[in-house]
Amino acid sequence: MLEIKNLMVFYENAIAINNINIKCEGGKVTGIFGANSAGKSTLMYTISGIILDVKKKEEMKGGERITVLGNIAFEGTDITHMKPSDRAKKGIILCPERRRIFAESSTLENLKIGGYLATKAQAKKTLEYVYTIFPPLKNLKRREGGFLSGGEQQMLAIGRALMAQPKLLLLDEPLLGLSPMMEAMLARSVHDINLQTGITILISEQYARPILPIIHHGYVLENGGAVLEGSSQELMENPDVKSAYFGL
Ligand code: ATP
């Protein structure tokens, strides 16, 4: 479904992604684990194409140069240079780090904005599904996004991404700053979304513990490079992963 080959991303002369090869199998959940600054967000921006917008803006301002090398193929098509909006139309939808919901819009408005690519019938059906997977959102329809708790905002951010009819859902650190209980609940929801809808998911996290059990395959990033990969089981049993990402 998604195949990344020899990807390199530079901010000016600093390397953020160092020759990465990653595959996301269709219908599966793939995990990306790494500490702060390992390159998780840069990878998500590069897959969704947002990096090309950032690059353009930087060039217009005469600021830093961003260079993307390598190859990204989605369902057999090379998308490396495709505009982010065209990638979204193809079904590559990013749920960005720190939620980025519209704080002054209500929960329902946020969800409707997410559905701008969907037909009326799709939007209606997906909205019902979002309320099934995240029941608290149903009672918070009219509440402004800014007044939701961190966990509710994250549910909303994922719900909004679902409204965009993803084939590949990119979740960038969805558990950031949440309580252990909320982490567990959201990890279960991500697992259920994948099982119930078959949407392919790429999820990044700093801490592997809540996410490792729900992935099929995962990669560990360090300083922009993929230093380790394996199935959920293989990564869970790996002593380096245990000490670095489980704190064991
Ligand atoms: P975090 O958990 O902090 O979000 P991350 O794994 O998502 O970290 P990135 O944000 O992708 O990591 O950062 C990778 C590297 O690229 C870091 O060294 C970071 O400082 C650098 N970087 C990220 N964005 C920019 C930018 N716009 N300009 C220059 N350097 C950047």
Write a compact overview of the structure shown:
By secondary structure, this protein is α/β, with parallel strands linked by helices.
The radius of gyration computed from the alpha-carbon positions, rounded to a whole number of angstroms, is: 18 Å
Mean pLDDT: 93
Cofactors, ions, other ligands: adenosine-5'-triphosphate
Helix percent reads 25-40%
- H/E element sequence: EEEHHEEHEHHHHEHEEEHH
Biggest sheet character: 6 strands, mixed
- Across the major sheet, the strand order is 6-7-8-3-9-10
Distance between the termini: 34 Å
Number of helices: 10
Strand proportion, as a percent range, falls in 25-35%
Helix/strand structural class = alpha/beta
Give the overall silhouette.
Answer: globular
Counted beta strands: 10
Low-confidence stretches: none
Structure, described:
It is a single chain. By secondary structure, the protein is an alpha/beta fold. Helix content is 40%, strand content 26%. The chain is built from ten helices and ten strands. It has helices spanning 40-48, 50-60, 84-90, 107-114, 120-133, 136-139, 150-163, 180-197, 232-237, 239-245, and strands spanning 2-11, 14-24, 29-33, 66-74, 77-78, 92-95, 168-172, 200-205, 217-222, 225-231. The strands form two sheets. Strands 6-7-8-3-9-10 form a six-stranded mixed β-sheet, with helices on both faces. The protein has a four-stranded antiparallel β-sheet with strand order 2-1-4-5, covered by helices on one side. A hairpin with a 2-residue loop joins β4 (66-74) and β5. α4 (107-114) runs parallel beside α7. The longest helix is centred in the C-terminal third of the chain and has 18 residues, at 180-197. The two termini are 34 Å apart. The model has no long low-confidence stretch (mean pLDDT 93). The structure holds adenosine-5'-triphosphate (ATP).
